[in-house]
Amino acid sequence: MRIGVLELQSYPARAAWEYIEYFFTNKQYVSVTTQSVSFWCRQLGHQVFYATYSGVGDPIAVLPADLDLVFIAAHTMTAPLAYALCVLYRRRGTRTVLGGPHAKSYPQDSLRYADLVVLECDQALVEDILHERFDPGSIISSPEPYRQVPLVVERLPEIKKSSFVAGRPHPGSFIPLISSMGCPYTCNFCSDWDNPYQPLSNERLLADLEFVSANYPAVPLVFHDPNFAVRFDEVMSILESVPPEKRNPYGVQSTFTILRPDRLERLRDTRCIFLLPSIESWTAEYSNKLGVGKIEAREKLTRMVEKFRTLKEYVPYLGTNLIFGLDHDSGPDSFELTKEFLVQAPFVYPTLHIPIPFGGTPLFSTLLEQGRILESMPFTFYRIPYMTIIFNHYDPLTFMEHMVDLFAVASSNQLLRERFAHDKQILARGTNLMRTITTKRRYKVFLEILDLLKSDPQFLAFHQGVTEQLPDYYAWQYERLMGKFTELLPLAESVWHDFDRGQATLIRELPIDVSLAGEPVP
Fold first, then answer.
1. What's the pLDDT score for residue 435?
2. pTM
């Protein structure tokens, strides 16, 4: 068969800066799972066309038109584009399989457009799909996430296509690896909340490290583990088995409970160049991953600054995540503490988030039960800087005023100069510059939304939950982002059509009632 495997990372770029940002930034997040699906199809003897769409060019043009079957993976914010492509491929007679984070969060909604919707996936499930062992209109899943990741040498054609240029690495290239699945923590907003931590094969990890060091010695590695090195000594011993002069630089996401001071030398010596331990919130409710106990917020700020300063002595580039508007947040404290953190630790680049109601999470269930999800908001806006929920302790106007004030500091030229002073490496400076420009662009959108909340009563009423009528601003933004694909998926089709999808996490155990999915798209 002629099989397409497509990972959607963004909407088509529409400005010069977006082309640059999407090309260099999105490639860091290429999915190992999508590459694995492509390899498994090749291994079974099929003709496979693999592509990642980062936002550059036309997503229709990245795959041939005459496919027998296409796998499409998408996050929720790109779901409308994924749906539109499914409509197009089905019109051409191509069977469509939709997977990725969005399909797992909203499987029954996804089934309106795809022939098959995949929750968890492994090699056996892919083989069953290719042999047409599932009826169209099915939500399917492997018993658990796959445990054997194809080796880098096996995924090399996909890596060259997604991360290299003309088959060769460039300064922005990364090679994705994964050494474990799941996470030992159960954060209510996280899609991995119910995926227990599971280490993968150390022998295969070592084989990957040896292959990359021999063939691509200067290319950085990015570990996609939700929580890297939970078994710290075990994983470090694998990294240390590669001779020091042959080790590739690498980046990871981890937690402070793992990153004890006595372990940092081993990270430095194995060439860890990027580290992202999340703070997530200044409230005590989200302190279990920080190793500081449930302490008062200002003391937590002091401890976090100290911890990051210690990390900086060993790892050159640091990041963190912070979320604003969680149910335990109230008042200006979280925003003010974050501004102080930016000033005291400018060498840490935080990604600032707003809660998003991803299906299947405890947060989604709570918000749905309380009627606090803006149900007519298209999936396109399930991302920062947009508000998709009704906050527990903030009205939308006050919340947006806080975000504007925070982003004014986060995107300031003064803070960028401070970061340049701390980060001498070209890669770190270039990354800081790109992220600051992106933050400035988000700041402008925050200002637009704040102005609308102040000047447009209907816009404010929508975000207060008083009316479900979608403001014209979002309709215009949707059509601008979707462009010609709006015809394939009009605005009315980009919002919820199944309010029972909070049951997504139960579908693995319960029989699927495909009648809940609505009529398939012709």
1. 87
2. 0.92
